[in-house]
Amino acid sequence: MAFSRKRKIKFSFSDLKLPEMRSLWIFALLVVFLLIADYIFISSPTITKLTVFLFMGILIFWNNLKTARLNQETKNTSGRLNDIVKSLSDGIVAYDVDFKILIINSAAEKLFGIKKEEVAGQYFGPERVREARLKLFTQILFPSLAPLVVRRTDGDGYPQVIDVSFSEPSLDFRITTIKMSLPDGKTSGFVKIIHDRTREIQLYRSKSEFITIAAHQLRTPLTAINWTLDTIVKDSSVNDENKEMIKNGLAASVKALKIVNDLLDVAKIEEGRFGYNFENIDIVKFLNEILENANVIAKKYGLKLYFDSGGDRSIILKADPNRLGLAFSNILDNAIKYNVQNGNITVKIERLPGKPYIQVSVVDTGMGVPLEAMPKLFTKFFRAENALRFRPEGSGFGLYITKNVINRHGGAIWIESTLGRGTAVYVTLPTDPSLIPPKEVIREEY
Question: How many Å from the N-terminal Cα to the C-terminal Cα in the chain?
Fold first, then answer.
């Protein structure tokens, strides 16, 4: 443990020039005046007066010296902080609770195309968005005025992070708002850190466009290969030995096409254009149909599927049946592929007490997930080591796509697992349509 040591205050004659020493000089002049008066008329209390004056002078000197040094340190610290703020590449804007602009750095001036003198010391309100020159600056201070805002943090606490996008001109900012507080805990103001992400987003979209074009170029010939091989397999003139070889080729081609389709889906999700068509669905009936299709594959692996609707014959909620079907199919596909021989899969629906949500759980008796792999399960390309050893083929896109689909529906997904004993996947979905996000957002991973 390190202990802080009090710094000793050393005196130098240059300290006498500090503004805080003026009271000492006035006191010294008063002492000189009284000494002259005593010299003219010397009285018995002179020594006592000198002692008192000397003691008072020492106290004044010491107090003024400490004050002067503290003030000087404050000025030096303030100067260093100002230099740091000025040199930052991100825009910095500080304002008090009445939206009076206290600080704006040079980066913010460049971002908004304004001068410090135009805004510093001024009070801002939403009505100033009408001023063409200050429109962008006002929209950043009051994000509700911006065309598109996406919250990146939950709750009302600080710091708060949001993404703000503009179309004309095309601009993308990430804004972090920090609260400033007084020693008594009262809010004194706020600091906004504005990071210009326009170039980053453009590069990210270019990357996604490249993947989309490449995947489309691959999908067309693969589809043709699949159709051709499937036709040959059905041809009765082909002998069994050749037919078996063709079936293996067809299976490999189908897997390759699935990876290409997954790549396309990922690119669309990242660009915020996966496309959703929401409608009212009966989630009980919906899941029952998905399980009937999955049961055909499960039987081949000797698995048993169980469905528990929690006593509800019907639960209506708003969803995109195609996208949500893709998500649950991915979850069930994993539960089947990584299960043990003669294992079980149990799907259960339940209403969350006092909340406008349902919870769907998919519990299997499979190999489980290693603890160190859990934080990465929903990232692109990731597959746990035991899954790779058991089934080397796979793209690692399934859970990434699933998570984004569930999030777009206003829900959440998480996984609990015990290695060697099985995995439980939990999905929550809102029964209140107002809890569904209004738009898709760009989901970048740099």
Answer: 39
| Within-domain flag for 442 | no
What's the whole-model pTM score?
0.60
Specify if 320 maps to a domain.
yes
* pLDDT grade for 1, boundaries at 50, 70 and 90: very low
| Rg for the chain, CA atoms, rounded | 36
Note whether 80 and 101 are same-domain residues. no
Do residue 238 and residue 285 come from a single domain?
Answer: no
* Range list of β-strands (E), 160-309: 160-166, 171-181, 187-196, 279-282, 304-308
4 domain residue, yes or no = no
Structure confidence by residue, pLDDT tens digits, 394-414: 778 889 999 999 999 999 999
Of 33, 51, 86, the residue that ends a domain is 86
Distance, CA of 83 to CA of 105 (rounded, Å): 10
Average pLDDT over residues 54-73: 67
Tell me the per-residue pLDDT of 95-150, one tens digit each, with 9 for 90 and over: 999 999 988 888 899 889 899 888 988 999 999 989 989 999 999 999 989 888 88
- Contact partners, residue 442, CB within 8 Å, separation at least 6: 201, 204, 270, 271, 272
Domain tally for the chain?
4
Q: Cβ atoms within 10 A of the Cβ of 1, count?
A: 2
Question: Which positions ≥6 away from 171 have C-beta within 8 Å?
Answer: 136, 165, 196, 198
Q: Is the peptide bond before 169 cis (omega within 30 degrees of 0)?
A: yes
Residue 207 tokens read as 């990357």
Mean pLDDT of 143-162: 84
Are 156 and 214 contained in the same domain? no
Residue 444 lies in a domain: no
Alpha-carbon span 186 to 106, nearest angstrom: 29
Residues 82, 224, single domain; the answer is no
Contacts of 243 (CB under 8 A, 6+ apart): 232, 233
Q: Which domain holds residue 48?
A: 13-86
Of 196, 202, 204, 200, nearest in space to 176 by CA: 196
Nearest-angstrom CA–CA distance, 390 and 338: 8
Q: Cα separation of 425 and 328, whole Å? A: 10
Half-sphere exposure of 383 (CA within 13 A, CB side): 17
Name the more confident of 319 and 13.
319
What's the CA gap between 95 and 67, in Å, rounded?
Answer: 29
Cβ count within 10 A of residue 168: 6
Domain end point (choices 158, 175, 196): 196
